[in-house]
Amino acid sequence: MKFENTKSFAQFLDQQDKLAKYRNEFNFPRLNNEEVIYFTGNSLGLQPKKAVEYVNEVMQDWANLAVEGHFYANKPWWDYHERFNQPLSKIVGAKPLEVTVMNTLTVNLHLLMATFYKPSGKRIKIICEEKAFPSDQYLIQTQVQWHGLDPKTTIVEVKRRKGEHNFRTEDILSKIEEVGDELALVLIGGVNYYTGQVFDIQAISAKAHSVGAFVGWDLAHAVGNIEMNLNEWQVDFAAWCSYKYMNAGPGSASGCFIHEKHHTNTTLNRLGGWWGHNKERRFLMEPQFDAISSAHGWQISNPSILSLAPYLASVEMFAEIGMKQLVQKSKQITAYLEFIIREIAKEVKANFEIITPEQSTERASQLSILLHGSGKELFTYLMKNGVIVDWREPNVIRLAPVPLYTKFEDIYNFGKILKNGILEQTSN
Ligand SMILES: *Cc1c(COP(=O)(O)O)cnc(C)c1O
Fold first, then answer.
1. Mean pLDDT of the chain, nearest integer
2. Contacts of 327 (CB under 8 A, 6+ apart)
3. Best of 43, 193, 252, 390 for a ligand 1 pocket test (most atoms within 8 Å of beta carbon)
4. Most buried among 9, 55, 80, 98, using CB within 10 Å?
5. What sections of 38-82 are H helices per DSSP?
6. Measuring CA to CA, which residue among 29, 38, 77 is closest to residue 57?
């Protein structure tokens, strides 16, 4: 389709958009009495109206039933987390019993590493991507130290080539090959938080297995953003937060995937608690831990129902739409945003570099733009004019045109504001 930088064309795309009605399911921040253009759904998704309803339901049940709510609430609390199995498994391409929700992301990665990072003999090394999200760097460093090893010699970072913004799959695969039988674990972010690059989860997972290592994925920016088949791709484990593309609210519960092949493997250690114990016998208060033979067997504590409630509301919406349909719109709206940015850059002779991969298979709902010659003033201008974007030093703005609630007209309007912002800067 040939795009046009006109309001009528953007409105035409909105009329064709099968997901357009979902915008109404969200609460938008307002500036000067107008809904903002929200491009930071990759950082904190907007609030689904249904999330408010689900949280209120828990509050009401708590008020009316107190302890009885565990069994007699409208959605009983004792197995509330099991309501995620069906819808969440569809979103990540898993079998229902391969997913669970608990804790928060970095905590879950620590817990999953307790199972899947077992350095022994010379097989001690971990491969990750250079400049991973800080929490992942700290996670890996401290895990390595926890085992009495030296991060400098144990952690192997795959690097970008000089002058390139993105990783090459071939470089990751050859690094895995090179480390070979010293490799214990590959742990990478499925979608890079800075550039939006989508990694080849299937190929990298297969390669890790071919040298005898486990592979885990941090799917913080992938879940609800790209289509995945974690079961088929033989991923050992994965975890994600729910407050980015999944719109479950600040600090809400994290999701985990553990491949079914590991569910009953007793040679794998885990850190247990009563919520992972045989469900039928949980309240018998038995002395011996008997893990549930599914991802739920990695549960530890009784979960925060108030944090699961908004997530459940959101997960149900995603399952209703399906990732296929969502990704279709995502590709179109991201392409439209790219088109608008390039048009504006031509009109005002700005030197923007889009550092997100151009290939639609290697990116999702995010464009990161390196603003050569433009500074933070442009970011401030955008924010003051109702465009919520994210700024990363030294001069990158990240734009996430989230398909669930972004209109094509938003993209057109953003173009106008961007153009005015640049003209204002250059005239000063
Ligand atoms: C957002 C994000 C996190 C956040 O971790 P929390 O434990 O939820 O605070 C971690 N890793 C990556 C890659 C992220 O994008």
1. 96
2. 226, 227, 364, 403
3. 193
4. 98
5. 49-65, 69-72
6. 77
- Whether the predicted pLDDT of 142 surpasses 90: yes
Is 104's C-beta closer than 6 angstroms to any atom of ligand 1? yes
Ligand 1 pocket test, candidate residues 106, 226, 304, most atoms within 8 A of CB: 106
Per-residue pLDDT tens over the stretch 28-37: 999 999 999 9
Say yes or no to pLDDT of 270 above 80: yes
What percent of the chain clears pLDDT 90, i.e. is strictly above it? 92
**What is the rounded CA–CA span in Å between residue 155 and residue 185?**
10
Q: How far is the CA of 72 from the centre of ligand 1 (A)?
A: 34
User: How high is the pLDDT of residue 188?
Assistant: 98
* 122, 222, 255, 322 from 90: Cα distances, Å: 38, 14, 13, 8
Q: Which residues of 238-263 are buried (b: 16+ CB within 10 A; e: fewer)?
A: bbbbbbbbbbbbeebbbbbbbbeebb
